[in-house]
Design goal:
single chain, mainly alpha, 2 helices, 0% strand, DDE family transposase
Length: 62
C-alpha cells in the first residue's frame, strides 16, 4: 500500500510543527474533502500531544 501527502504547509521556521499547526492542517483537509473522506491518519513520531489526540478522538479520526 502506498501513501502520499495530499496537503502540506511550509512553515516559516526550523523544527517541528506544533499542535495548532497540525490541527489546522487536518481542519483544512476536512473543509476541502469532507469529514467522511478521512478514515484514518498516518503520522510520524512528532505527531503527539494530549490535545492533538483529544482532537482526533473527538472527531472520530483513527
Amino acid at each position: 500500500m502506498r501513501r502520499f501527502p495530499l496537503l502540506f504547509r511550509l512553515l516559516p521556521k526550523f523544527g517541528n510543527s506544533n499542535t495548532n499547526e497540525r490541527i489546522e492542517l487536518i481542519q483544512r483537509y476536512m473543509h476541502l474533502f469532507g469529514h467522511e473522506a478521512l478514515d484514518c491518519l498516518t503520522a510520524d513520531r512528532e505527531f503527539v500531544g494530549e490535545r492533538c489526540i483529544k482532537y482526533l478522538n473527538d472527531n472520530r479520526i483513527r
